[in-house]
Amino acid sequence: MEMPVPNPSIIARKARVVQRLHQVLPADAVISDEQETRAYECDALTAYKCPPMVAVLPYTTQQVSDVLRICHEEGVPVVPRGSGTSLAGGALPTADCVILGVARMSDVIETDYDNRFIKVQTGRTNLSVTGAVEEHGFFYAPDPSSQLACAIAGNIAMNSGGAHCLKYGVTTNNLMGVTMVLMDGEVIEVGGAYLDAGGLDLLGLICGSEGQLGVVTEATLRILHKPEGARPVLIGFDDNEVAGACVSDIIKAGVLPVAIEFMDRPCIEATEAFAKAGYPMCEALLIIEVEGSDAEIDHQLGLISDIARRHNPVELRQSQSPEESAKIWLGRKSAFGAMGQINDYMCLDGTIPVSALPHVLKRIGEMSDHYGLKVGNVFHAGDGNMHPLILFDANKPGDLELCEEFGAEVLKLCVEVGGCLTGEHGVGIEKRDLMHVQYAREDLDAQMSIKDIFDPAWLLNPAKVFPLDASESRRSVLLAAE
Amino acid sequence: MMDITSEDALVDAIKGARTPVSVQGGITRGLPKTGAVLSVAGLNGITLYEPGALTLVAQAGTPVADIEAALAQENQRLAFEPMDHRGLLGTTGKPTIGGVMAANVSGPRRISVGAARDFLLGVRFVDGQGVVVKNGGRVMKNVTGYDLVKVMAGSYGTLGVLSEISMKVLPRPETQATLVLHGLDDTTGVRAMAAALGSPFEVTGAAHDPAQKKTMLRIEGFETSVMYRLGRLRDLLGNMGAEITVSDEHKTADAWTAIRDVAAFSATQDDVWRVSCKPSDGPALAVRSQADAWLYDWAGGLIWLRCAAGHDLRRKLGAFDGHATLVRADDETKARLGVFHPENSGVARLTSALRAKFDPKGLFNTGLMERAA
């Protein structure tokens, strides 16, 4: 993956930049020692690493504003960082950048149960947002699998999803307002504790902009009361296509489960060996969860089971207790870990129309043979968001590149059948150069012109999202001006 | 008047335009006209509908009624419940799906399932220089690049003219019923709605009519489930001091259509305002407004207010968390007070830069979203 050549004139001014940052931040908030900046050299896409020039960890919106103003004046690129859990390289530094981490901004500012919102600083982790309101029976719905560690700042930047978004939506559907600092230090307020923008929907634009439009320091989030209960049913099939048809029939029947998860045989085998959840050995496994009171759950699981039985499942196990539910979820929740036990893996994130599922799984199988790399599929079947896990050996020369080539082919296939490159992880650097596959030049220009407005000098997270050749003229404006 | 029947023709019309145009679909939403009419009502037809994937793609001028009919055949619906403005505004056209999305029109169910913008998965539009831009797609989860889909929803045609949209649709529930609380004042009504929304019983509509002192809470789903939830809600709200009745499926549907379309204000001539606010602020804002009548939807977070013609509601309300839109008034009043709420300076600078970027010739619904001087 190519990154822009660091600007030597910026690196030459490091001492001056550090000194100016010290003037506006407490001593412990500026990290410039080469050993210590190494802690910020990558995010969860660990194949790519580069220590930043400086890392800063401000405590307040004012300090974020001061940092951005200084970097703007000095012409220094800034890479915002939440908890560094991006799977797409969204927080990958360059050697001439300042990493701006919001991890120390984790306060709850306001909780309001009557109006059903919580306002937090964005360094707060996803799970601890729910933690702050669960005593009153409430929760924050988007639940990316990294929710123990990932920050709301990163969730907003990537418009994160999760297993339960079939019912509750993704981040953008649960975000009501933000405080955001623009690259020149201006602090703006968008939205708040009320619904829908009065004018243009800037909130929708900011969510999912991968830290390229501004640094969001505070967020107003919608909270909901927890359902009375939730239980899954596990259904095994000896054919992927039949499993896909079953999902489609359930949706058509008017049942809207909170989650429909799908695992294929390689993934089931790996998971069984690792977690011993007692899954049946079959071609396709569905875990479908519904919510409500006990009687409501029984009714819905009954309907789902009736539909499933018409497709001749090899196994159908309806959970009757929290213990059984935990056992059904155990394998799914350890799927990534199980695949990781076998080898290094790359996790893809394309979305496809649900109807294309059998075709896409067949093609992925053929590609797996062609590239000689094993792949397991686990994904959110209700919304078509796939997570093929391609296994490779990071210590074997050429294997990573082969894996990336395979991954790119899978993502191209997703677009070809009417889907997209990324459903919830974001583009970052990982899918950056594939954007041409999904979007024409004009489509990318329209998106880049948004960044021109928010960040005219292209200093915020500049080498992400857009193919380097497409963004080059914009990114070089600054260099030319020097 | 330019009648457009293809995206190519739309491109040509925009490239050829030298003076401002009024972008129109079904002409039911009562927007002031500026310049020649550019109608996209001829861009008509459902392009793709996959019930099992809960997605539908249609050309922007497709009548909402056609889409609802197609969905009904598969027992599905537009869950965000778009308002029909014709009764309130006295307009007569056919509402189009492009108009619904361009104005981000949602109804009572917005509080539980989201707004029109939350159901919009993808768009094709033509910008002010005649360039066709696509964004999003037809799958439910998509974070590939910036989300121009959201900013097109509610942009009232000021950034570009929608040619095609793709949407998420949802199953129609088996049945519905409404719990009605009688005799509550505004503050208690809003408190009852907050308690209902803060319960696990998935209320999909919460409205309060001060004139009739009726607070309505809608439950939808499978029949046994609806019965169960009504019972639990009744227990929960038993201490509010209200007489509680249940209205059945048929009466419920009509009542919620009336709330959605603000039918109570349709036979009058006064100005009508729409205020989005923090729900618990609703009653105090209503008093401050000095309006002649009002209704609460969205558990108090949406207030419809009827005022004497020319009444400057925003001045009466003063500063508050939210925004006020002038929905019905004569063109002079709309021009004087502005249809949309003034934005804070940071947001205003960005939104006006966005309009300038996408519509550099100033063609589309010029001035509509900026505050009149």
Automatic annotation (TrEMBL), chain A:
Cofactor(s) listed: FAD
* Entries under InterPro entries matching the protein: FAD-bd_oxidored_4_C (IPR004113), FAD-bd_PCMH (IPR016166), FAD-bd_PCMH-like_sf (IPR036318), FAD-bd_PCMH_sub2 (IPR016169), FAD-linked_Oxase-like_C (IPR016164), FAD-linked_OxidoTrans_Type4 (IPR051914), Oxid_FAD_bind_N (IPR006094), Vanillyl_alc_oxidase_C-sub2 (IPR016171)
Q: Which GO terms describe its molecular function?
A: FAD binding; oxidoreductase activity
Q: Which UniProt keywords apply?
A: FAD, Flavoprotein, Oxidoreductase
Boundaries of each FAD-binding PCMH-type domain copy?
48-226
Nucleotide-binding is among the record's keywords: no
Q: Fetch the PANTHER family from UniProt.
A: GLYCOLATE OXIDASE SUBUNIT GLCD (PTHR42934:SF1)
Which named protein is this?
FAD-binding PCMH-type domain-containing protein
Recite the lineage of the species.
unclassified sequences, metagenomes, ecological metagenomes
Automatic annotation (TrEMBL), chain B:
What GO annotations for molecular function exist for this entry?
A: catalytic activity; FAD binding
Is Flavoprotein tagged as a keyword? yes
Keywords assigned: FAD, Flavoprotein
Q: Which SUPFAM superfamilies match?
A: FAD-binding/transporter-associated domain-like, FAD-linked oxidases, C-terminal domain
Record domain FAD-binding PCMH-type: where: 1-172
List, alphabetically, the Pfam families matched.
FAD_binding_4
Entry keyword annotation includes Flavoprotein: yes
List the protein's name: FAD-binding PCMH-type domain-containing protein
